[in-house]
C-alpha cells in the first residue's frame, strides 16, 4: 500500500505523550507485519521532532535499542527478508543516534546470515565487526536466545573456532555462574554438579564465586532435604480432599472462577522445580480461556423454560459472541482498505494483535464486568455510576468501559508475546534462580548481589530483544471504541411485551441491550453507556471482577532481584504500586545502584512463607455458607429470587393516586433503600463466594502470597481475594504450612491468643493465659460443636480466627503430650498504637512512651484510657468553672469516645475530621448522650479540643515533630527550583539581599514553621465560625505563583514586569499599565519575565532500607481524546503537573510514620528469617508459630531500637536539605526605609521598569514586594530524654 506523507509540529507539553503514542503504533505495525508503515511513521516522527525543537535531543526523543532490534527482526522475518534494510537500521543506530554497539543486534544479524542464509563469509565479517568495531566479545553469541538450539550452537561454535579459537574461551566467572544456575534448575533430578561447576574461579571476585560454587554443589541435597521436610511437616500435601458440594451464588463471576479453578491440575505430582513452575504458569494463563468457555457454554443445555431474561448474561452471550466476531473481521478489513495514510486509522494495527474471537470475548466480558457500586480506580475523569433519564436508568461513563477493554487487550497481547518468546535457556535460568531462592541461597547477601546483577543484565537483554512499549490510554480507548460501537449494534435482548392484537398474550421484542448517550453530571455533559433495565438488574447484583491470574501461587514467588522481576512467574509484576512516573524514576535509579536489596529481601521473606487452607475451619465455613444464615461476617441469603438478590417489582400502595407528592417520593426512596441493601447483601455474598471457591480449590496445597509495596513502602499480598491481610474470615481460613512443636512457651502463647482474640488484651500475659484456662470448656465446645453447641467462639472480636485457635488448642490439650503437639496456627503480636510508638521514640517522650508500652511494666498500658482520663479531668475542671458543654459531658467521657481520634491523630487526621469522629461517637449512643443537635455540635467541638490538648501533653516531642514535618513539607511543596524561575526575578531577589531587605533563609524557615504549626487549628476554628475572609499563607503564595505561571501569550508586558510590586492602590497600577509598556526599554527583561514555571517540588525522602518515597499529590491533568464513539477526557500521566502543597503538607507526617512502620516490619522479616522462623505481617501485626513468639518478640524489640538508634530525624532533615538545596521559597517583605526604597527604585529602573521606579521615588511610601529566598529546612525540635534501650525490656511492646 502506498502511504501518503504529511508534515506537522508539536508543542513541548505534548512531546512525551506524542512519543508514547507513536512508539506504540510503530510496535503494533511491526508486530502485525506492516514494516513499511512502521518505517514511514518512524521517519515522520523524527521529522516532526526536528521541525518542532530543532533536534531530536531537544524534544526528548530517545531511540531505544529494543526498537532498533524490532525493526531488524521485522525486516529479517518478512516472507522476502530484506537484509540490507536490517543492516541499515544497525548502522543508523550507531551513526545517527549514537547508540553503542549491542550484542543482541549482532546476534539477530549473524543468526539470519549464518543459519537462515548459510552465508559463512558474511557471518564472519559481522563477527569481526562485532569484535573490532563494536568492541564486543563474539563469545556472547553462544548465550544468545537465537542460538539456543543444539544444531545452531554447533554451527556457531564451528564458525568461531575457525575464525579464532580464543573466541570460545570465555570468562570462567560467567561459566561458574551459568553452570551454578543450570545445576540449581536441575537440583531435584541431579545428584551432583557437573565438572564445569567444580572449577575454581580465578577472577578478582574469586571469593564470591567460590561461595556460588559451594552453594551450587549443595543445591541438590538441600532441595531433596527441603522437599522431605515439607512433606513431613504437611503430610500428603498433594492428596485430593474429599469435598461435599458447596452451594454456588448465581453469579457469572463465580461461575467463571469455578470453571477456571476446576480446570487446573493442582493434584498433579510434579517434583522438579521446572515442573512446578510450569504448573504455576498454567495457573496464571487460565483467565481468558475460562471466560471464553463460560461465554460460549453458559446455559446452552438449559430448556427454554429456564432461560428467562433474568438469567443473563449466559443465554445471550453465545449469540452476541458469534455476531461480534464476524463484525470485527469485517470492520478490520474495511478499515484496512480505506487506509491511505500511515497516520490514518491508527487503532487498526492494535486490533490486529489479537484474533477476532479474543477481541469479542474481551469486549463482551468487560461490558458485563460492571460494578454498580460506584468509584473504582479507573482512568476517567469521572467514573461513578450515574443516573440518567430522571433516575429511571443507570449508566456507566463511557471512558470506564473503554479503558478496561483497551487494558485487557494490551495485557493479553503482552502475555502471549512473553510466552511466545520464551526459550529453553531462559526457562532454565529462571528455574535456577528460583530454586536457589527456594533453597535459601539468595538470602546470602554475597550471592544475592551477584545474581541480582545477572538478573539486571538478563532483564536488559530481554528488554532489547522484546521491545513492547506501554500503550498510552489514548491508544487503548480509541481501539476499544471501535469494539464498543460494534458490540452495541449487535447486542440485543428479547423483552416480553403485550401483544396489541391479543392483550392476553405476550410477544418478545428485540431491544438494544446497551445504548450510548450523554448525561448531565455536576453541571457537565458526560458520555455514558446506558444499560437495558433487565441487564442492569443482573449486573448490579453480579460483580464480575475476579482475576484468576492473581490467585495464590503453588510455588514460592519469583525473588525480587530487580524492581520488576519478582512475584508471579509470567504475569509481569512491579515492586511498587504507583502510576507516578516521578516515583518510578527514583525507584529505577535506586535499583540500578543496587540500593534496594534490603527491601527486596524482606519481600522475599514474606513471599516464601508457606500457607495452607485450614480444612476444619473450611468445613464450618461451608456449613454456614450453605445454610444461608447470617453468621459472623456472612450476610444472610435472601430467599426472594432464590438468592440472586433480584427483586420483584414492588407494588404501589392502593392509595397511590391519592398520595401527596412528598409521600410518593418517600415511598420510592424507601423502596430504593431496600433494593440497595439487598443488592449490597448479594454483592457481599458474591465476594465471600469467591474467597470460599479459592480456598476450596487450594485445600491440601501449599500456597504462597507474593508481595509488593505501596508508595510509602507498606507491603501487601498481590493475590487480591484470599490472603492473610483480608478480613477475619480470610485470616481464620489460613494456617502455616509447616507444623512446629509447641513447647511450654508455645502452649502458653496459644492460650494468650485466645484472650487476645476475645478482646482481653489489656491484662497481663499470665492473666490472659488464665482467661483461656477458665474457658477451656467453652473452647472445647466451640471445637467440638462449632454450630450446634454454645457457639462461644462467635462472641469473639475475631470469631473465625478464634475458631481456628479453638481447634488448635483443643487438639493440643487432648494430645498425649500437649508440649509435643505440632502446631501451625499463626499467633499474633500487635503493636500498641504503633504510629504513636514511633512518634514517642522520635520525640523522646517519656510519658508518652509509657502509655504506648515502650517501657517495662507489669501490664500493658492503654493510651486510649490514658487520654480519656485526662479529658475527663479537664471536663470536670471546666464544668466547675461554668462551661455548659463540660457540664453536659461530665461522667460521660469513655474510652470508645476518644479511641478513633487518638488512633488517627498519628496518621494526620485534621481537627475537622477528628471532630466529625467525636460527633459520630456521641450520636451512636443517644442513651448516654441525650443531646439536641446544637448540644452535640458544641460538645463535640469542646471534646475534640481537649483530646488534642491531652495528646499534646502526653506526646510533647511527638507533637513538635508532627508540626515540623507539616511545616517542612509545606515549604518544600511551595518551593521552586531556581532554574525554573525567570532570571529577572532572581536578580530582584539578589538586589533585595544586597540592600538588606531580604531575610535569611533560616529566619524564614523558623517563621514558617511557627505559622504552619498554628495554621491548622486557626483555620479549623474559622471554619467552625464560618469565617471566610481570612488571609492565609496560601493566599500570598497563590498570587505569586499565578504570576510565575503566567501564560506566555495573553498577558501584557507591563503586567508581566510589574507582578512583584503589590501596590496598595491596584487601580493606579492599572491606569499606568500602558505607559509602562512604552517605558520598558529592556527586551531581555520582557523575555525573562515571560518564562513559565511548570512544576514545583514533591516531598521526597529515603527510608533506612534505601526505598525512595515520593508523595504523589499533584494536580490532575486531563487530556481530550476523540474516538469513533465520542470525545472523552482521561487523566494524563505523561507530564508532571504542579504539586498540591496542602496535601503534600498534611500527608507528610502520616506517610513518614508509615514508611518507618514499613521499615521496622522489613527489618523484622529479615531478622526472623535469619533466626529460622516463619514470619507474616499485617502492617503492625506480626505473626509466627506459637513456639517462636518469644524469638520474634526479641527480634521486634531489637530491630525497633536499631531503627530508631540511627538518628532518623537528623538524617531526614539532611536529606531534605540536600535534595532541595537549589530551591527558592516565595516571601513577602515590606520596604519602608527611605534609603532602601531609593535603591529598590533604581534597580527597577535599571532593569527596564522605569514607570514603577519613578512612582516609588515620587511617593516614597512603604512598599510590599513579593520575591524569593533560598529554601532552608527548619531546625529540628529538641528531643526528650527517653532511653530507647528500655524497649528491649518491655514485655508489652508488641503483645
What does this structure look like?
With 1295 residues, the chain is α+β, with helices and mostly antiparallel strands. It is 54% helix and 8% strand. It contains 50 helices and 23 strands. The strands form nine sheets. A four-stranded antiparallel sheet has the order 1-2-6-5. The chain has a four-stranded antiparallel sheet with strand order 14-22-23-15, with helices on both faces. The radius of gyration is 34 Å and the shape is globular. The model is unreliable at 1-6, 188-244, 287-313, 371-383, 540-546, 640-648 and 1018-1094 (pLDDT under 50).
Shape: globular
The description of the largest β-sheet is:
4 strands, antiparallel
Q: What share of the residues does DSSP label as strand, in percent?
A: 5-15%
Tell how many strands the DSSP assignment holds.
23
User: Total helix count?
Assistant: 50
Radius of gyration: 34 Å
Strand order of the largest sheet: 1-2-6-5
The low-confidence runs, each spanning 5 or more residues with pLDDT under 50, are: 1-6, 188-244, 287-313, 371-383, 540-546, 640-648, 1018-1094
Instruction: State the distance separating the first and last CA atoms.
Output: 73 Å
| Average pLDDT, all residues | 78
Amino acid at each position: 500500500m502506498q502511504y501518503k506523507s504529511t508534515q506537522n509540529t508539536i508543542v513541548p507539553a505534548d512531546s512525551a505523550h506524542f512519543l508514547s503514542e507513536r512508539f506504540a503504533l510503530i510496535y503494533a505495525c511491526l508486530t502485525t507485519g506492516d514494516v513499511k508503515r512502521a518505517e514511514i511513521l518512524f521517519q515522520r516522527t523524527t521529522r516532526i521532532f526536528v521541525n518542532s525543537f530543532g533536534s531530536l535531543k531537544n524534544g526528548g526523543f530517545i531511540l531505544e535499542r529494543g526498537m532498533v532490534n524490532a525493526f531488524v527482526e521485522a525486516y529479517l522475518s518478512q516472507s522476502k527478508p530484506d537484509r540490507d534494510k536490517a543492516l541499515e537500521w544497525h548502522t543508523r543506530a550507531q551513526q545517527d543516534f549514537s547508540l553503542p554497539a549491542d550484542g543482541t543486534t549482532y546476534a539477530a544479524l549473524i543468526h539470519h546470515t549464518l543459519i537462515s542464509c548459510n552465508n559463512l563469509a558474511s557471518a564472519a565479517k559481522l563477527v569481526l565487526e562485532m569484535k573490532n568495531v563494536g568492541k564486543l566479545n563474539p563469545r556472547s553469541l553462544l548465550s544468545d536466545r537465537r542460538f539456543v538450539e543444539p544444531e545452531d550452537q554447533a554451527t556457531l561454535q564451528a564458525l568461531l573456532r575457525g575464525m579464532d579459537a580464543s573466541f570460545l574461551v570465555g570468562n570462567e566467572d560467567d561459566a561458574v555462574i551459568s553452570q551454578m544456575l543450570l545445576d540449581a534448575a536441575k537440583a531435584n533430578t541431579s545428584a551432583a554438579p557437573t565438572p564445569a561447576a567444580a572449577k575454581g574461579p580465578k577472577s578478582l571476585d574469586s571469593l564470591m564465586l567460590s561461595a556460588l560454587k559451594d552453594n551450587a554443589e549443595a543445591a541438590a541435597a538441600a532441595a531433596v532435604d527441603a522437599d522431605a521436610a515439607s512433606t513431613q511437616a504437611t503430610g500428603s500435601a498433594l492428596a485430593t480432599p474429599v469435598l461435599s458440594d458447596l452451594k454456588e451464588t448465581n453469579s457469572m463471576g463465580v461461575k467463571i472462577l469455578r470453571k477456571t479453578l476446576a480446570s487446573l491440575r493442582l493434584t498433579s505430582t510434579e517434583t522438579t522445580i521446572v515442573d512446578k513452575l510450569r504448573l504455576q504458569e498454567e495457573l496464571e494463563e487460565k483467565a481468558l480461556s475460562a471466560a471464553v468457555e463460560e461465554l460460549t457454554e453458559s446455559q446452552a443445555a438449559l430448556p427454554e423454560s429456564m432461560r428467562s431474561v433474568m438469567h443473563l448474561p449466559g443465554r445471550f452471550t453465545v449469540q452476541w459472541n458469534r455476531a461480534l466476531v464476524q463484525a470485527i473481521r469485517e470492520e478490520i478489513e474495511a478499515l484496512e482498505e480505506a487506509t491511505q495514510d500511515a497516520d490514518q486509522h491508527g487503532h487498526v494495527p492494535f486490533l490486529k494483535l489479537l484474533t477476532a474471537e479474543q477481541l469479542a470475548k474481551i469486549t463482551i466480558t468487560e461490558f458485563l464486568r460492571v460494578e454498580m457500586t460506584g468509584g473504582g480506580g479507573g482512568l476517567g475523569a469521572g467514573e461513578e455510576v450515574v443516573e440518567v433519564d430522571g433516575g429511571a436508568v443507570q449508566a456507566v461513563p463511557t471512558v470506564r468501559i473503554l479503558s478496561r477493554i483497551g487494558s485487557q487487550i494490551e495485557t493479553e497481547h503482552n502475555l502471549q508475546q512473553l510466552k511466545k518468546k520464551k526459550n529453553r535457556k531462559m526457562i532454565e535460568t529462571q528455574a535456577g534462580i528460583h530454586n536457589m531462592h527456594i533453597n535459601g541461597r539468595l538470602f546470602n547477601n554475597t550471592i544475592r548481589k551477584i545474581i541480582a546483577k545477572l538478573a539486571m543484565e538478563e532483564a536488559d537483554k530481554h528488554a532489547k530483544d522484546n521491545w513492547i512499549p506501554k500503550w498510552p490510554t489514548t491508544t487503548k480507548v480509541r481501539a476499544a471504541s471501535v469494539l464498543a460501537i460494534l458490540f452495541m449494534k449487535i447486542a440485543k435482548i428479547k423483552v416480553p411485551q403485550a401483544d396489541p392484537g391479543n392483550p392476553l398474550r405476550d410477544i418478545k421484542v428485540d431491544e438494544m441491550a446497551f445504548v450510548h448517550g450523554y448525561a448531565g453530571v455536576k453541571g457537565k455533559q458526560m458520555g455514558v453507556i446506558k444499560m437495558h433495565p433487565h441487564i442492569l438488574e443482573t449486573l448490579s447484583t453480579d460483580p464480575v471482577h475476579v482475576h484468576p491470574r492473581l490467585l495464590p501461587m503453588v510455588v514460592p514467588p519469583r525473588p525480587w532481584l530487580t524492581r520488576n522481576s519478582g512475584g508471579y512467574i509470567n504475569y509481569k509484576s512491579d515492586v511498587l504500586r504507583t502510576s507516578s512516573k516521578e516515583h518510578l524514576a527514583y525507584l529505577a535509579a535506586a535499583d540500578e545502584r543496587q540500593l534496594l536489596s534490603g527491601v527486596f529481601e524482606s519481600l522475599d521473606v514474606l513471599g516464601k512463607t508457606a500457607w495452607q487452607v485450614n480444612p476444619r475451619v473450611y468445613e464450618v465455613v461451608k456449613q454456614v455458607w450453605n445454610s444461608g444464615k447470617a453468621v459472623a461476617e456472612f450476610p444472610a441469603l435472601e430467599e426472594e429470587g432464590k438468592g440472586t438478590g433480584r427483586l420483584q417489582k414492588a407494588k404501589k400502595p392502593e392509595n397511590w393516586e391519592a398520595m401527596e407528592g412528598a409521600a410518593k417520593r418517600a415511598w420510592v426512596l424507601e423502596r430504593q433503600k431496600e433494593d440497595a441493601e439487598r443488592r449490597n447483601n448479594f454483592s457481599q455474598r458474591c465476594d465471600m463466594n469467591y474467597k470460599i471457591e479459592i480456598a476450596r480449590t487450594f485445600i491440601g496445597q501449599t500456597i504462597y502470597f507474593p508481595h509488593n509495596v505501596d508508595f510509602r513502602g507498606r507491603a501487601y499480598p498481590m493475590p487480591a481475594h484470599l490472603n492473610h491481610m483480608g478480613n477475619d474470615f480470610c485470616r481464620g481460613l489460613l494456617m502455616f504450612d509447616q507444623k512446629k512443636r509447641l513447647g511450654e512457651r508455645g502452649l502458653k502463647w496459644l492460650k494468650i491468643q485466645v484472650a487476645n482474640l476475645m478482646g482481653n488484651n489489656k491484662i497481663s500475659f499470665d492473666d490472659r493465659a488464665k482467661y483461656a484456662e477458665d474457658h477451656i470448656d467453652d473452647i472445647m465446645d466451640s471445637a467440638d460443636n462449632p454450630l450446634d453447641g454454645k457457639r462461644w467462639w462467635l462472641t469473639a472480636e475475631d470469631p473465625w480466627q478464634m475458631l481456628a485457635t479453638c481447634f488448635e488448642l483443643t487438639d493440643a490439650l487432648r494430645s498425649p503430650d500437649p508440649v509435643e503437639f505440632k502446631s501451625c496456627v499463626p499467633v499474633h503480636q500487635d503493636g500498641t498504637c504503633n504510629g504513636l510508638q514511633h512518634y514517642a521514640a522520635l520525640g523522646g517522650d517519656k510519658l508518652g512512651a509509657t502509655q504506648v508500652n515502650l517501657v517495662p511494666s507489669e501490664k500493658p498500658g492503654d493510651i486510649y484510657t490514658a487520654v480519656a482520663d485526662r479529658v475527663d479531668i479537664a471536663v470536670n475542671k471546666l464544668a466547675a468553672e461554668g462551661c455548659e458543654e463540660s457540664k453536659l459531658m461530665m461522667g460521660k467521657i469513655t474510652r470508645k469516645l476518644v479511641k478513633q481520634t487518638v488512633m488517627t491523630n498519628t496518621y494526620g487526621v485534621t481537627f475537622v475530621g477528628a471532630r466529625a469522629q467525636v460527633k459520630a461517637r456521641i450520636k451512636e449512643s443517644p442513651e448516654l448522650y441525650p443531646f439536641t443537635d446544637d448540644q452535640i455540635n458544641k460538645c463535640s467541638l469542646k471534646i475534640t479540643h481537649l483530646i488534642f490538648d491531652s495528646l499534646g501533653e502526653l506526646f510533647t516531642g511527638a507533637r513538635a515533630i508532627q508540626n515540623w514535618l507539616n511545616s517542612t513539607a509545606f515549604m518544600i511543596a511551595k518551593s521552586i527550583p531556581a532554574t525554573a524561575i525567570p532570571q529577572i526575578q532572581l536578580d530582584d531577589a539578589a538586589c533585595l539581599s544586597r540592600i538588606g531587605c531580604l531575610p535569611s533563609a533560616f529566619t524564614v524557615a523558623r517563621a514558617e514553621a511557627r505559622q504552619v504549626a498554628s495554621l491548622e487549628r486557626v483555620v479549623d476554628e474559622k471554619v467552625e465560625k464560618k469565617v471566610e475572609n481570612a488571609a492565609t499563607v496560601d493566599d500570598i503564595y497563590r498570587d505569586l505563583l499565578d504570576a510565575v505561571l503566567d501564560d506566555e501569550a495573553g498577558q501584557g508586558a507591563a503586567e508581566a514586569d510589574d507582578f512583584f510590586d503589590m501596590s496598595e492602590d491596584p487601580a493606579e497600577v492599572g491606569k499606568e499599565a500602558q505607559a509602562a509598556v512604552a517605558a520598558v526599554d529592556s527586551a531581555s527583561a520582557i523575555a525573562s519575565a515571560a518564562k513559565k514555571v511548570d512544576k514545583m517540588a514533591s516531598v521526597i525522602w529515603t527510608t533506612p532500607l534505601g526505598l525512595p518515597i515520593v508523595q504523589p499529590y499533584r494536580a490532575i491533568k486531563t487530556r481530550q481524546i476523540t474516538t469513533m464513539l465520542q470525545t472523552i477526557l482521561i487523566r494524563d500521566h505523561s507530564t508532571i503537573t504542579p504539586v498540591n502543597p496542602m496535601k503534600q503538607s498534611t500527608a507528610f507526617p502520616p506517610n513518614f510514620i508509615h514508611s518507618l512502620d514499613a521499615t521496622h516490619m522489613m527489618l523484622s522479616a529479615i531478622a526472623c528469617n535469619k533466626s529460622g522462623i516463619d514470619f507474616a505481617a499485617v502492617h503492625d501485626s506480626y505473626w509466627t508459630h506459637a513456639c517462636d513468639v518469644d524469638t520474634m518478640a526479641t527480634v521486634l524489640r531489637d530491630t525497633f531500637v536499631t531503627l530508631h538508634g540511627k538518628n532518623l530525624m537528623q538524617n531526614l532533615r539532611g536529606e531534605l536539605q540536600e535534595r532541595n538545596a537549589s530551591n527558592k521559597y516565595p516571601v513577602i517583605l515590606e520596604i519602608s526605609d527611605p534609603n532602601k526604597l531609593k535603591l529598590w527604585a533604581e534597580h527597577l529602573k535599571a532593569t527596564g521598569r522605569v514607570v514603577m521606579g519613578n512612582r516609588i521615588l515620587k511617593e516614597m511610601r512603604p512598599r510590599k514586594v513579593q520575591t524569593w529566598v533560598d529554601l532552608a529546612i527548619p531546625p529540628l525540635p529538641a528531643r526528650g530524654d527517653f532511653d530507647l534501650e528500655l524497649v528491649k525490656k518491655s514485655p508489652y511492646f508488641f503483645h
